[in-house]
């Protein structure tokens, strides 16, 4: 009897493994066609300047409109793409689309707008990344200083010397470098001054309940102060409440991004948001209540 149970348990877990695998395999197969079938879409989330209260930039975030499964979030398929080298054409499509769209917004008069694009590890390590970026900038005619590449620490730790060199090459093109999810990785503060970052993004986990969580408040405040001493711009991610926003404004954070201000939006909706840009009036903490 006991043996039977064991066997059952075994087949059950094996089943789970098998079905999980086949799910991934079919997602991977589908992802191969997703680009050609135009199922991928960029959503745009604004970054609001706390000095002007207006949109200063935008982050491009990929979505997959799967014909059967509906809208799929990047966390569900970027790792699959990354594991199968699909990430290269996919990442290139993201860069091209984001740069071309931003140029369109510039031509429509919003020529202050910067666009941030997330880069995966494999993309960053592509030997011809520099040439690909050059081509994308050339084809889109977007001035390179309006493009920011967001990288996480995990991508940069494996070969620090070489990675610093690569970043410096990219920066020679005029492109800005942003450290995404700061505080979630190996985060030695010494990193900040080793790498040629322009911007750091404080991860949501330090922003959450910052008004009530005194540890988060201390961490966020020190990150902002230190970053400013190193002449980096600071963006806080994942702002969900007015109290969090007020706190970050008081601490002199430069820009904020989060669902409180706007969720990531499809291109048309983001264009509408740009048109009524004056809606974000957060010039000083006192005015936040009104907003
Ligand atoms: P990320 O770069 O840190 O992007 C921020 C994530 O936080 C986005 O999730 C965004 O929708 C979400 N977010 C924004 N405001 C709030 C908020 O107020 N509350 C909460 N809970 N979440 C908020 P998303 O779009 O699902 O993307 C997840 C991650 O997938 C991104 O994290 C990024 O690492 C990756 N990713 C997205 N697009 C791309 C892409 O085109 N290429 C690559 N390589 N990675 C991408
Ligand atoms: Mg990002
Ligand atoms: Mg992030
Ligand atoms: Mg992330």
Describe the structure.
- The chain is an alpha/beta fold and 291 residues long.
- Helix content is 50%, strand content 19%.
- The chain has helices at 2-34, 74-84, 87-107, 121-125, 129-140, 153-156, 160-172, 190-194, 204-207, 214-229, 242-250, 267-275, 285-288; strands at residues 40-49, 55-66, 70-72, 114-118, 147-152, 176-182, 199-202, 233-236, 255-256, 265-266.
- Strands 1-2-4-5-6-7-8-9 form an eight-stranded mixed β-barrel, surrounded by four helices.
- The longest helix is centred in the N-terminal third of the chain and has 33 residues, at 2-34.
- The radius of gyration is 21 Å and the shape is globular.
Summarize the structure.
This protein is α/β, with parallel strands linked by helices and 291 residues long.
Helix residue percentage: 40-55%
Residue fraction in strands = 15-25%
* Strand element count: 10
Overall 3D shape = globular
Helical/strand content category:
alpha/beta
| End-to-end Cα distance | 67 Å
Low-pLDDT ranges:
1-21, 282-291
The average pLDDT score comes to 88
Name the strands of the widest sheet in spatial order. 1-2-4-5-6-7-8-9
Question: What ligands does this structure carry?
Answer: ligand C2E, magnesium ion
CA gyration radius, whole angstroms: 21 Å
Protein name: Response regulator receiver modulated diguanylate cyclase/phosphodiesterase
Domain EAL: 24-278
Organism: Hyella patelloides LEGE 07179
List the helices and strands and how they pair.
Layout: H1 2-34, E1 40-49, E2 55-66, E3 70-72, H2 74-84, H3 87-107, E4 114-118, H4 121-125, H5 129-140, E5 147-152, H6 153-156, H7 160-172, E6 176-182, H8 190-194, E7 199-202, H9 204-207, H10 214-229, E8 233-236, H11 242-250, E9 255-256, E10 265-266, H12 267-275, H13 285-288
Parallel strand pairs: 2-4, 4-5, 5-6, 6-7, 7-8, 8-9
Antiparallel strand pairs: 1-2, 1-9, 1-10, 2-3
Helix pairs in contact: 1-2, 3-5
The structure holds ligand C2E and magnesium ion (3 copies).
Ligand C2E binds at residues 45, 61-62, 73-75, 78, 91, 94, 118-120, 150, 180-181, 204, 237-240, 258-259, 264.
Domain EAL: 24-278
Protein name: Response regulator receiver modulated diguanylate cyclase/phosphodiesterase
Organism: Hyella patelloides LEGE 07179
């Amino acid at each position: 009897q006991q043996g039977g149970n064991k066997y059952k348990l075994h087949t059950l877990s094996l089943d789970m493994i098998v079905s999980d695998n086949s799910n991934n395999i079919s997602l991977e197969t589908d992802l191969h066609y997703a680009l050609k079938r135009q199922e991928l879409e960029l959503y745009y989330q604004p970054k609001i300047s706390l000095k002007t209260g207006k949109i200063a930039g935008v982050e491009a975030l990929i979505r997959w409109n799967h014909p059967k499964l509906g809208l799929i979030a990047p966390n569900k398929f970027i790792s699959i793409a990354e594991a199968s080298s699909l990430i290269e054409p996919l990442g290139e499509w993201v860069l091209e689309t984001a740069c071309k769209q931003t140029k369109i917004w510039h031509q429509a008069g919003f020529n202050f707008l910067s666009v941030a694009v997330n880069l995966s590890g494999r993309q960053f390590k592509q030997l011809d990344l520099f040439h690909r970026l050059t081509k994308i900038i050339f084809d889109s005619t977007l001035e390179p200083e309006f493009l920011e590449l967001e990288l996480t620490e995990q991508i940069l730790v494996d070969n620090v010397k070489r990675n610093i060199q690569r970043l410096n090459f990219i920066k020679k093109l005029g492109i800005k470098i942003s450290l995404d999810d700061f505080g979630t990785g190996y985060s030695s503060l010494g990193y900040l001054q080793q790498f040629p970052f322009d911007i750091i993004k404080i991860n949501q986990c330090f922003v959450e309940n910052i008004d009530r969580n005194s540890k988060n408040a201390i961490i966020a405040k020190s990150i902002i102060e230190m970053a400013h001493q190193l002449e980096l711009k600071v963006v806080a991610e994942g702002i969900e409440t007015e109290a969090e926003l007020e706190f970050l404004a008081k601490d002199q954070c430069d820009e904020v991004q989060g669902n409180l201000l706007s969720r990531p939006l499809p291109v048309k909706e983001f264009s509408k948001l740009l048109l009524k840009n004056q809606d974000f009036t957060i010039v000083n903490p006192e005015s936040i209540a009104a907003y």
